[in-house]
Amino acid sequence: MLELGRELMGRYRSVYVTFREEERCWDFVRQAQVQGFEAVALKHDTPRLFGAFRELVGILRASGASVLFCHGYKSGLLGRLAGRKLGIPVIAVSHGWTGESLRVRLFDWIDRVNLRWMDEVVCVSEGQARKVRRCGVPSQKVRVVRDAVRTDRFASPEAEYRSRLESLFPDKPEVIVGAAGRLSPEKGYRFLVDAAADVLRQHPNTGFVLFGDGPLREEIARRAGTNGLGARFQLPGFCRDLDGFLPHFDLFVLPSLTEGLPNVVLEAFAARVPVVATAVGGTPEVVEDGVNGYLVPPGKVEPLADRIVRLVCDRQRRVAMGARGRRRVEEKFSFGAQAKAYEELLGRFLSRTNGARKPNGADE
What is the pLDDT of residues 160-176, one digit of tens each? Predict the structure, then answer.
């Protein structure tokens, strides 16, 4: 969101409003402010949602907002009500639904219902757009604007990060297979653990590193132990400098059961790393099977292990696929292209309002 704001800066004024989320919001707020944006953390959160609603209305009124973009079920619900009160358009950005627990499935259902009443729904992939239409959102209100990545983040990989990856293992591996994400059911990492066991039986000098944290961390560790993976499957935890490690993976794996459009795949390609991923959601819109990586069916261990082995065995193929992945994101997933799509959307909505602002005074 901040990168999009940077692309629009000078033509549109972006103001960011976030829930506190148990005080996890402050890194984002500080980053936004350092980059020159206005950023506000609401004082109220669940269960004091009426207070949050009043705060949001006040912020929108004070900023003179012309359009409100909402990310997530809670933002969408309060944002739609606040927008209706003030008479400004409200647009939801739909990233995907995880359904990882009964509680989250309830929130996902609320989001699906609420989307039907939005002025427009921006989906991060065609795959997510299909899901949104199935929820009952009219096709004319659904628009696809894909996520983006800045390739210059990976322009100068630092060799120390490869050394740090290798140091996770008692014996230096020849090939390092990487993965990163929230350790929750919908990410499918249990299938990666089982596939790793198959890979290591054939190529014991391979190393697996899974960055991330979440409710399944202990279960994944136990599964790795049960499969006899030992030190060849590492779980270093949450990583704040993943950009440094990504270019030093030999291949990247995403075994998700559901996705909107996975940013981590865009980042892997930007780092010239080939990807083995499940063909879910918007992933096939990024990964071209056999070109810049491989697509496999979700929840299947054998094809996942087979495609990993193909790349473990063939360095030349890994390099060629990684280079094609980089070209793919450069051509199709730039922030310039994303900003252009949002400008078209903003122009269309602002032209409908009587007092449409000039571009340098408009709020996103």
Answer: 999 999 999 999 999 99
Residue indicated by tokens 């930007």: 270
CB count in 10 Å sphere of residue 30:
11
Distance CA 200, CA 287 (A): 25
What domains lie within the chain, and their CATH numbers?
Answer: 2-148+334-359 (3.40.50.2000), 151-332 (3.40.50.2000)
Contacts of 252 (CB under 8 A, 6+ apart): 177, 178, 179, 246, 264, 265, 268, 273, 274, 275, 276
Q: CA triplet 69, 341, 350: central angle to 5 degrees?
A: 55
Residue pair 182/213 in contact (Cβ under 8 Å)? The answer is yes
* Residue 117 near residue 80 (C-beta atoms within 8 A): yes
**Token reading at 273:** 């790393």
Q: How far is CA 340 from the centre of its chain?
A: 20
pTM of the model: 0.90
Largest CA distance in the chain: 68
Closest to 124 (Cα-Cα) out of 276, 298, 259, 293: 259
- If one counts every other C-beta atom within 10 angstroms of the C-beta of residue 358, the result is 8
